[in-house]
Amino acid sequence: MGEVDPDFIQPLEHQPKPGTLEAEGIPFIDLSPLNSKEPDASSALDHLVSEIGDACKTWGFFQVINHGVPSQVRQRIETASKEFFALPKEEKKKTSRDEANIFGYSDLEITKSVRDWKEIFDCTIENPTVIYASDEPDDKELRELTSQWPQSPPDLRQLQNSASFFLVEICQEYAAEMQKLTHKLLELIALSLGLEKDRFHGFFKEQTSFMRLNYYPSCPAPQLALWLGRHKDASAMTVLAQDDVGGLEVKRKTDGEWIFVKPIPDAYIVNVGDPIQVWSNDKYESVEHRVTVNSEKERFSVPFFLNPSHYVWVEPLHELVDEENPSKYKGYSWGKFYATRKLSNFKKLTSENIFQGLGEAYLNLISLCVFLIEEVVLCVESFRVILHIYACMLSKNLNICCTSSYQKMD
Ligand SMILES: O=C(O)CCC(=O)C(=O)O
Ligand SMILES: [Fe+2]
After folding, report:
1. Is 42 exposed, middle or buried (0-12, 13-18, 19+ CB in 10 A)?
2. Which residues surround ligand 1 with Cβ inside 6 Å?
């Protein structure tokens, strides 16, 4: 595997095993009752709400069809994304994200201290998007950000109908559709938790949502690297368009097996993220997922991350907390978490991967030890404090970033 940069090599226990399970995939939900004028529409809607609730509880993931997003809008964003990533690297790098603007292009995404085999382009939804300027808890200074768009290179200017020439318009058109869809999905999720339909809307008035174009080039090391390492989404909800190549896997809650999410033309994959886990007081869970590579094909996907406003304090909703179900989480400031997460990208980029330069065997031994310690510590509830100190030590000394947004109650 001489050609693979060690930065991309997953720790042994997270390297994908051949033969992922495909059976019994994540639920498949038809949203057509939302638009139905039939007399029995209300019972179909009740059924839909219970399907959504079951999917959120059992999987944290589901796929939707008849969602109302025109297929041409999706085709346009897919074409524009392909054309953008086909631009010369120096053109893409003109929109590189940095500490001053966290939105734009990057080919240096890192998940849990290992590089992902991919390139991305992030753009804002609100213009401007308001975030905290720093991760310091008492620093209330705000920063207003807008997307960076590629300047069309001279030879592209002749192709006036090139999709990447219109990337800004196409992304805006797609984002508008995602806003409508996430609005409906939030209402269904609220109803499924026994809440008022509009219970979540107030959290997104000045949303910090963003959308991402993902380009995953084919990779010669399918046993060692991942297109995207295992993670849970920090967004409240993610809506994802994947192409027909596949690779997304979801960790099944019942047994921890990785389950392949079958690409379905024109369907969207929806998952609940950390804030919904906290708001629902653990009724729903933000579930781990990853993307395994393909050694022959490239892959494109477009996630829309629905994020709260910077000033939102995320804590279990009072309607879902009582004596029988005490609050399971300490609250957290969405905006401060987001600033920490986004700014840590740049701290990570300037530091070397802890595994860099080590021989593969040594690397595997270290990562296995870290994994075993982590498992043992996690099993013993009363060692929570030790885990915290351990995580802090690791993040400080070894540049591993703590990525969890929430903290459970003691
Ligand atoms: O590309 C995919 O299938 C998944 C993307 C994803 O999980 C993410 O960007 O958080
Ligand atoms: Fe994700």
Report:
1. exposed
2. 212, 214, 228, 233, 240, 242, 248, 289, 291, 301, 303
Residues paired with 407 in a beta bridge: 330
What pTM value is reported for the model?
A: 0.85
Residues 97/104, Cβ–Cβ less than 8 Å: yes
Closest listed residue to residue 191, CA positions, set 350, 48, 325, 351:
48
Tokens representing 91 are 């053109």
Q: Determine contact, residues 91/201, Cβ cutoff 8 Å.
A: no
pLDDT tens readout for residues 212-242: 999 999 999 999 999 999 999 999 999 999 9
Q: Longest Cα pair distance anywhere in the chain, in angstroms?
A: 67
Residue ranges covered by each domain of the chain: 6-346, 351-408
Domain 6-346, CATH number (from 3.40.50.300, 2.60.120.330, 2.160.20.10, 2.60.40.1120): 2.60.120.330
Determine how β-strand 226-231 pairs with β-strand 110-111: unpaired
Mutate which of 214, 233, 307, 345 to test ligand 1's pocket (most atoms within 8 Å of Cβ)?
214
pLDDT for the residue 343: 84
Which ligand has the minimum distance to the alpha carbon of residue 242?
A: 1
Contact by Cβ (8 Å): 329, 407: yes
